[in-house]
Amino acid sequence: METKKPSGCWIAAWVAVAVVILMVLGLIYGLVKVAKSDSSSAESKSPSAPLAGAVQMDFNAPLGPPPSPGDAVPRETFLRFQQDSRITQLAKDAFNQAAQGSQVSWDLQVGELVSKDGAASGKFLLPYAASISGNSSVNGVLSLQVEFTADQTAALLTLRRDDWVRVAGTLDLANGRTTLREAKVVQAP
Predict the structure, then answer these.
(1) What is the model's pLDDT at position 105?
(2) How far is it, in rounded angstroms, from Cα 32 to Cα 41?
(3) In a shared domain, residues 53 and 34
(4) pLDDT value of position 1
(5) Closest CA to 70 of 104, 19, 116
(6) Which of 11, 17, 120, 168 is deepest in the core (most CB within 10 A)?
(7) Which residues pair with 171 in a beta bridge?
(8) Where are any strands of DSSP class E within 15-160?
């Protein structure tokens, strides 16, 4: 009796099945990895302890009108208009238009500082914790760019990441980015 050799079609079919199984396993692994990284992102919805130094807010409090052009903009008001998902785009746009060019003085956390063309700039952080309903809260960190005047470099040399510093500057909300321009260190740690 002669043993029958498997035909090339059957071999190709089994290889194709193996490839499909590997692709499905890779897809599942990728989805699990993305889900884990999403759960550890900068914003989390839980009643957990807020971040150290975070601005405490209540998103359930009544929403006041946007500031008048030229008015000081408290960082709590700024954060609420930027981060409260229940505020309409119309209200956010009105706030951004009114706040554009305002002088602000905010306590911020140092992220990174660099020097470019003789002037220092950097990424600063604004952690927040807001109650949203009942026992639910949302914790997050808003990142903003700060561009310092040339005479500020010496004041910035002693700052380290995670230090808190009061920074005054001109608020620029153009192109969906938050930047403090012509910034100065008002109070260092």
Answers:
(1) 94
(2) 15
(3) no
(4) 57
(5) 104
(6) 120
(7) 180
(8) 44-45, 55-58, 103-116, 119-133, 136-148
Within a domain: residue 77?
Answer: yes
Residues 31 and 94 in one domain: no
Same domain, 30 and 70: no
- Check whether residue 156 and residue 170 sit in a common domain: yes
One-letter amino acid of 159: L
Q: What is the pLDDT along the chain (189 residues), one digit of tens a residue?
A: 556 665 667 677 767 777 667 666 665 665 545 444 333 334 443 344 445 677 777 777 778 777 887 788 988 889 888 888 888 999 999 999 999 999 999 999 999 999 988 889 999 999 888 877 767 778 889 999 999 998 998 889 999 999 999 999 999 998 889 999 999 999 876
* Spatial contact of 155 and 177, defined as CB atoms under 8 Å apart: no
**What is the residue type of 46?**
S
Q: How many domains does the chain have?
A: 2
- Collect all residues with Cβ–Cβ distance below 8 Å to 33 and sequence separation of at least 6: none
- Find where tokens 């960190």 sit: 141
Residue corresponding to tokens 């998103």: 59
Cα separation, 64 vs 96, in Å, equals 14
Indicate the helix (H) or strand (E) that contains 179: strand 179-187
